[in-house]
Amino acid sequence: MQLATMIASPNSRRFRVAGVIAALALVALILHLRLRWQPAPFEYAHEYYQSVRSYFKGSVYNNTLYTDGNDMVDPYFNSSAPCANFPNTDGVLLVMKTGATEAFDRMPTHLLTTLSCLPDFLLFSDMEQQIGPYHIFDALAEFEESAKAHNDDFDLYRNQKECPVSQKSCIDAKSEGHKAWNLDKYKFLPMMEQTWRMRPNHDWYIFAEADTYIFWANMIHWLKKQSGFDPREKLYLGSRSFIGGTPFAHGGSGYILSGTLLRHLIEYHPGVVKQYNVKGSNECCGDLMLAMALEEYESVKVRQAWPMINGEKPSTLPYGPGHWCEPLLTMHHMNSEEISSVWQFEQTRKVDRILMIRDVYEGLIQPKMQVSRANWDNLSDDVCYINPDPEAQDRAEGHFRDRQKKQEDMNDVEKEAWKSWENCAKVCASQDEPDDKSSNEKKRSRTCFQYRWHEEVCCTAKSFKLGAPKPAPGDSSSKAKWMSGWHLKGINEWIDAMGECKEPAWKKAEL
Questions:
Q1: What is the 3-state secondary structure (H, E, C) of 103-140?
Q2: What span, in angstroms and rounded, lies between the C-alpha atoms of 413 and 430?
Q3: Within a domain: 32
Q4: Residues 6+ apart with CB under 8 A from 197
Q5: Cα separations (Å) of 423 from 103, 459, 483?
Q6: How far is Cα of residue 340 from the mean position of the Cα atoms in its chain?
Q7: Do both 233 and 99 map to the same domain?
Q8: Residue 396: which of 385, 383, 410 has the closest Cα?
Q9: CA-CA distance, 301 to 234, in Å (whole number)?
């Protein structure tokens, strides 16, 4: 009996073990809380970030757009839910056009960014191709053989089909660029026909190039709420350009057709595609031919949606008057790295409002602005000052000569501006008020924000742009140097004087 009482039952042993574990857990909790109560070291935020990473399905990275003083974006890029804030695109279809010589350079970035959030889209090219699970349709597959047979514009089309390896190996995109351009114009009308056949009855059709970026949140808000347009009407929207007096929506900037207009064009006029295929050899551009067909058959002209539908990219946008509080719907000439950067900016922006041109400047361009850059072209060309010597005048490009300020209208600083980049830099500074206490109205009316100097030509600009690098000159003479500079004081004063954009400056797309 005594022995029996000395031997504990299995249940009692389990209770004792559980008690010991509970006690140890309590001690561990107290130690943990005590450490948390202590002042957090500088590395605490990083340690906390590391501890929560496992809770995200995707990865969290340092945001490469984040810099000291740039409070537009979050310091971390959480890629676990890239489509969480993507708008509802029901009734809207994207149709993107590319070329076989560029598809594998341009399309993958689109597919990894904005296109990854679209439930459906169509891709067209001048050759049928496959990128992973995504199919690219040949817009010219049904083009009449008789129209192609004796047309040199189709030499590239035939060469691409005969290439037994990758297009990169057979076709030099740089040297064959003009051939790709000549071939491209034939895709527009056949693409309309195939789009309607494959994806009929959408409210809106957005057509874009492989170097076009679309701000989808802005675009859907504008089409469905802000514009006031009814897709049951025949509508053609874009950034208007002119050739020979004919207005058309610039293809690279992107353009929009209402479903009603596309249906009418294709279903009511079955011969339009064939007719314009023949016309193509005598016209320069496919976007022009589309506009001609819409006017001829539907009596519809393009409605101007610029600068919202825009032909520039962040580094070439002319920030300033007319390009500030306006929302952006598209941008053009975007390479893959730029597309990725703008997507990243949209993903990591701290604010959830309509994205305006000002936001692009403050988030992507302002952190890179500095007083001057050598071997750089910031695209200043609004007002020019050129060496008055006849030989120098002949040497200068006609575009710059046409924008010279008259000698009798120049002040003393401007008369010396062509002599050196240092002199050129003084032109914008000469507009500053002596007491630096000018009114906001005066600051808002500033007309000189930056300069560019090269070969005794000094030009200033009424807006501010970042621009792009120029090769260092082989000529050792100082006048061959490219120099660009920004009057940061004037730029920042203008921005302060403008104040906050209280409301997005939506533009009414009018004829």
A1: HHHHHHHHHHCHHHHCCCEEEEECCCEEECCEEEEECC
A2: 7
A3: no
A4: 266
A5: 46, 11, 12
A6: 9
A7: yes
A8: 385
A9: 10
Tell me the CA distances in angstroms from 368 to 62, 143, 315, 414, 459, one per residue in order.
Answer: 19, 48, 10, 28, 21
Give me the DSSP letters along 427-440: HHHTTS-TTS---H
279 and 415 housed in the same domain? no
CA angle 372, 373, 375 (to 5 degrees): 145
Contact criterion met (CB below 8 Å) for 58 and 68? no
Are 504 and 327 spatial neighbours (Cβ–Cβ below 8 Å)?
yes
Rounded Cα–Cα distance for residues 448 and 429 (Å)? 8
- Which residue intervals of 306-360 are DSSP H helices? 336-348, 357-360
Residue 364 sits in the same domain as residue 383: no
Pair 494, 429 in one domain: yes
- Structural domain boundaries, residue 465: 372-498
Same domain, 255 and 321: yes
Q: What is the CA radius of gyration of the chain?
A: 30
Of the residues 368, 394, 420, which one is the last residue of a structural domain?
Answer: 368
Tell whether 395 and 351 lie within a shared domain.
no
The DSSP line for 286-306 is: HHHHHHHHHHHHH---PEE-T
What phi, psi does 138 have (nearest 5°)? -85, 110
How many separate domains does the chain show? 2
Which of 352, 368, 384 is the last residue in one of the domains? 368
Q: How far is CA 466 from CA 45, 68, 320, 397, 449, in A?
A: 34, 20, 12, 22, 12
Question: In terms of Cα–Cα distance, which of 330, 331, 247 is closest to 285?
Answer: 247
Is 259 in the same domain as 400?
A: no
For residue 407, give the DSSP letter. G
What is the pTM (predicted TM-score) of this model? 0.86
Q: What is the pLDDT along the chain (511 residues), one digit of tens a residue?
A: 443 443 445 455 555 655 655 555 555 555 444 444 344 333 444 454 444 444 445 589 999 999 887 789 999 999 999 999 999 999 999 999 999 999 999 999 999 999 999 999 999 999 999 999 999 999 999 998 888 888 899 999 999 999 999 988 888 766 677 889 899 999 999 999 999 999 999 999 999 999 999 999 999 999 999 999 999 999 999 999 999 999 999 999 999 999 999 999 999 999 999 999 888 888 899 999 999 999 999 999 999 999 999 999 999 999 999 999 999 999 999 999 999 999 999 999 999 899 999 999 999 999 999 999 999 999 999 999 999 999 889 988 888 999 999 999 999 999 999 999 999 999 999 988 765 566 888 899 999 999 999 999 999 999 999 999 999 887 766 677 899 999 999 999 999 999 999 999 999 999 9
DSSP state of 55: G
Q: CA nearest 248: which of 203, 196, 296?
A: 296
- The answer to whether position 411 is within a domain reads yes
